[in-house]
Amino acid sequence: GQIVNLADYRATDFVLERVDLTFDLHPTETKVEARLIFHRREGTDPKAPLVLDGDELVLSGLLLDQVELPAAQYDATPESLTVRDLPEAAPFELTITTVINPEANTQLMGLYRTGGIYCTQCEAEGFRRITYFPDRPDVLAPYTVNIIADKAANPLLLSNGNFLGGAGYGEGKHFAAWFDPHPKPSYLFALVAGDLGVVEDAFTTASGREVALKIYVEHGKEPRAAYAMDALKRSMKWDEERFGREYDLDIFMIVAVSDFNMGAMENKGLNVFNDKYVLADPETATDADYANIEAIIAHEYFHNWTGNRITCRDWFQLCLKEGLTVYRDHEFSADQRSRPVKRIAEVRHLKSEQFPEDSGPLAHPVRPTKYREINNFYTTTVYEKGSEVTRMIATLLGRDLFKKGMDLYFDRHDGQAVTIEDFVRCFEDVSGRDLAQFSLWYHQAGTPLVTASGAYDADGKTFTLSLEQMVPATPGQTVKKPMHIPLRMGLLAEDGSAIVPASVTGAELTGDVLHLTKKAQTVTFHGIPSRPVLSLNRSFSTPINLQFSQSAHDLALIARYETDHFARWQALIDLGLPNLLQAARDARQGLDIKCDSAFIDALLAAAADESLEPAFRAQALALPSESDIARELGGNNDPDAIHAARQTIIKRVAEAGKDVFAALYDSLQTPGPFTPDAASAGRRALRNAALSYLSQLDEAPARAKAAYDAANNMTDLSAALTILAQRFPDTAETAAALAHFRDRFADNALVIDKWLAIQAAIPGAGALERIRLLMETPLFKRTNPNRVRSLVGTFAFANPTGFGRADGAGYNFLADEILEIDQRNPQLAARILTSMRSWRLLEPVRADHARSALMRIERASGLSTDVRDIVDRILK
Length: 876
Ligand code: B3K
Ligand code: ZN
Description:
Elements: E1 4-5, E2 14-24, E3 30-40, E4 50-53, E5 59-64, E6 67-68, E7 74-76, E8 80-83, E9 92-100, E10 110-114, E11 117-121, E12 141-150, E13 156-159, E14 162-168, E15 173-184, E16 191-194, E17 197-204, E18 210-217, H1 226-243, E19 251-257, E20 264-265, E21 270-274, H2 287-302, E22 311-312, H3 318-336, H4 339-358, E23 370-371, H5 380-397, H6 399-413, E24 417-418, H7 420-431, H8 440-443, E25 449-457, E26 462-470, E27 485-492, E28 503-505, E29 508-510, E30 513-516, E31 520-526, E32 533-536, E33 545-547, H9 552-561, H10 565-589, H11 597-608, H12 614-621, H13 626-633, H14 639-656, H15 658-667, H16 678-697, H17 702-710, H18 714-727, H19 732-744, H20 749-760, H21 767-776, H22 785-798, H23 800-803, H24 809-824, H25 826-833, H26 844-859, H27 865-875
Parallel strand pairs: 2-12, 18-19, 19-21, 22-24, 25-33
Antiparallel strand pairs: 1-23, 2-3, 3-9, 4-8, 5-6, 5-9, 7-8, 10-11, 11-16, 12-15, 13-16, 14-15, 17-18, 20-21, 25-26, 26-31, 27-30, 27-32, 28-31, 29-30
Helix pairs in contact: 1-2, 2-3, 3-4, 3-5, 4-5, 4-10, 5-6, 6-7, 9-10, 9-11, 10-11, 10-14, 11-12, 12-16, 14-16, 15-16, 16-18, 17-18, 18-20, 20-22, 24-25, 24-26, 25-27, 26-27
């Protein structure tokens, strides 16, 4: 539990040349022999001992150049191995033997068992649970891996790199050897052994290399891996075309496992995936599942260059691989699907997940400078804000220079472990731009607030825009400097056409990018013939909060005419949000709720506009969530008032739009077999949005029930079930549908996750009892992270009224669960606990209950470092 500081970084005293691992697999006693060749780094202390990391390890053998080491020459504890009196200059070989217990590994870090197979997870610090090792990302070496195992139980023996060979090994055992020629850090090591089915394909790279592609899944599930395979091939092609990156081994493997702490892991040549992000067919997967699979398959594949070939010097640089790779997968999905719709989804996600993090107790810079538990820094700030920062570099440089900068990065740093500074320098070098101020995006936490106001001078034909920026204080950072904020913008005339200024003073404008670099700036646009409507932060070019009061007229005009469809969506949100906020305040006071017609008119016009993509229209119809409203309200929040307010406005929209929705619902039936493409998915999304509004007006569940009965794919089925559960929770129809769904999919855990999540999200004080009952069903397994996330995670993250019920029972329940989960799986416990990060925004009674629950966690004995770190920061 020590704090690690970026400023303390120094290279290791010893250079690791080669790694040779032999695993003799056994469910409870796996023997690991690690042969490590080191030499002392030139210029370091010739007497310095070698200190290796461990975690819950027991040493059972130690040789130096094949000779047993006397006990006086080393110290072994579960956390470290220190070896003294090592050669001053010559290379030497250490042979370390440890015995580990995969079956007992419930943390799912290191080597563990899932569904009868052996599998590993090493990022960030899991390799030290396998053997003593310099377990840090700047120690790179080629690995040879030998695996010995019982042949009948483990016909499959996999590791990184290329397959060298295999043979029998006596007594019903066999062995396989793998060699990975690309030097890698230990966090990219992987081993999988067991009995799995496989889907095989092949890819020929641009330069003609034949790559075997294999996706391993549980026997019988092979057909459900077809979409993942297709996504993989498209990813490989896209990375060649867009970034000039080819794959570099003879084989690329993906293994799907059912117990996994996160989405997936980019181990070199052997990605391990949460099966949720591999398996899909129309009967069991929603359109959102398909989109996630495509994105995550791409993300992990793209890591091969951004993360694996070029890796991080230390974990402070995590965004070097994660922010960049998220940016790459976002671009991939934008190219495969609809760019504006993809952007809207990204921004929705950023605002609902990252903005609260950035404005609360867990706020930290994209490139942090200290951590207590690195697992707690795989955050939406590092990932999603990190991606936004990369996107801004591309915006500042333009597409061609950005590509040049990336080429230089790949060229200059291939095979190295580098820093954010190294990355940024590549873009400075190709562009000649000074990115020092821009780099504050990596170093200053908090979402900048930009305030804008405009004035038109008809006589002078000028439009003056006053901009001001403020970066809020965040933990450990009270004083902030002005940032370089690239705002894409447009000026629209009353008829919607673009106004191009004759000249601009007071700020740099390149293309449609306006550069805000000072605390306050006054920008004048000259030669403006008529009052312009300003569209600011097009495509969300910069991740800020924007305070800019625009009239309903101007917003409606943007919503109707902007060429940037993201900006159209944003304008609709900006029209709706003040209504939602006022409604929440009024509901709190017991006042009548109002909603202005400009918003509803614009929304319905977009919904009915055949020239817009259905997916866009569905996004427009999805109002900001209750948590979004809570965040915008900014404090003293009452979840019940917010819920009531939002429901009332939804009903108003439904009433005003019932003809529009009825027409959409009837006309958007997709005949023929299900296809997961973006256009079909968009039609389903719009149709289900229409159904959702129509159901608001229904007195009885007949229509939703009919939709449930008619559904022939999981998207429609789960949408109908969600509507039944949310709108008609206590009816016989809903109970029957839930039971039917459960019985139909009882043998498919991933679909049962949906069944759990749909029920966990039902609002109201009764939610907790429902959760408790569901935890008793045999379909819920406490030991499986996906089940826990679906039930406990959905309740805590996505059910503000149920979780936040006024008597504090929800928070207390969560405290109990966190303490329980923490015994087994600290990473999972810490992640779910972050659902409490916004507790200070609650009204005083609830905030008090939340604080007591948090303090009960804090006072508990035997907390993991993971949970202790989060609870301490949340309470601070
Ligand atoms: N790099 C992994 C995440 C590892 C999380 C470790 N706690 C997956 C990814 O970002 O692609
Ligand atoms: Zn990643």
